[in-house]
Amino acid sequence: MSDGYITITYEPVIRTLTGKICSLEALARWNDPIHGEISPRIFVPVLEECRMIHLLDHFIMKQAAIDQYHHLQQEILQPPVILNLSRCDFELMDPCRELALLMEKYHLPHAYFQIEVTETALAQDEGIIAEAIRQFRSQGHPVILDNFGKGYSSLAALKKYAKDWSRDTISGRFRVRHANGNYLWKTFEVVFFQQKNHPYLLLCLRDFLFENQPNKENLLRNVMASYGFTSPTEDKGSNIGDAQLWHSLMHFSHRKLFWKDTEGRFLGASPAFLRFYGIERSTDLIGRTDDDIGWHISNLHMDQDEHNVITKGIPIHDGHGHCILRERQRTISYSKYPIYDGLNIVGLLGEFRDLEEQEKQQALQRRLYLIDEETNFYNYRGMILASADYGN
Questions:
Q1: Which of 51, 52, 53, 278 is the most exposed place for a label (fewest CB within 10 A)?
Q2: Is it true that 1-153 and 248-358 share their CATH fold?
């Protein structure tokens, strides 16, 4: 954090009824100069296990207050910011006091910040967190319960906290089976209120926004694409996907491609790769390593490159090595890239070029560029370049 590798970013929260931004969720992003962007799913659990998560959350809290202060000074209208707090935060620091100090230091209205706690955290430590929630609400900070319905929820538990969260609303979306057997998404809202000093719950049910859309299939497809789960399509007439592109590259190009698992075992190769090494079937290659085949000379440097790709996700561009082909040593240039499944590296994709073959191709291209095909003498371009070389 002190080196500036961890920064704050804001994710907009959209109110589905209006389609407008109603708040911004403050999130931490770690962009390491060596490893690149590190997902919060990786570093947040580590910080929680080491009981250091409060340092990160306090940093985000302070940065959000500074940003809100600057917006206030510039008279820029800014939605409320949601601060995520974990169970450890309430054990390792006093979030209510820390936020109150920041509000006082930067002269910010308390409504500028909302507090979000997970239902899991509440279930695991009711006493401390319930008291903190009362303090936040007394200071004017709305409190949001996140991850409602993920294993700990019950209406009885919600009713238990209705007195503390009177006039608050908790909502969640669930698939509900109807009498005809179809499943439809429904939005459930639980509204807390008091009447004659008794807490009550009002359960509201309505169709989810998607279910009322005439083109909900296309809408859902676009939402999935925006999160990177699928590839966006330009129009219905475009059916070119990743599989078709990969098939064309594999079978029609001269690129010598191969891919391996994390243990360095071959999983497949392109026809150009197999032709170069004189391998008839890919099954003769699959499951074997470079050491098993024995076609590399001095594997140490190439093995280290593969190790960096597999363990660190560092791509290798234009590395150089030597291999044996038909009892001859050949110099090759290779590139290797990590293959990800979500956040995990599951293998590598590589390609190589025979530099001797590449030099012959370049010589042929140079000849075609400078020599007239009919006379086999220099063309006009060749004569100009030859004259320049003679002059030098």
A1: 278
A2: no
CATH, domain range 1-153: 3.20.20.450
Residue with tokens 């599951």: 346
pLDDT at residue number 269: 92
pLDDT in tens, 229-260: 566 655 545 567 777 888 888 888 888 999 99
Q: How far apart are CA 255 and CA 352, in angstroms?
A: 8
Domain ranges of the chain: 1-153, 160-227, 248-358
Instruction: With beta carbons less than 8 A apart as the criterion, state whether 284 and 291 touch.
Output: no
Class for domain 248-358, per CATH? alpha beta
Q: Is the pTM of this model over 0.85?
A: no
User: 71, 75, 145, 82: which is closest to 111 by C-alpha?
Assistant: 82
Q: How many other CB atoms are found less than 10 A from the CB of residue 234?
A: 7
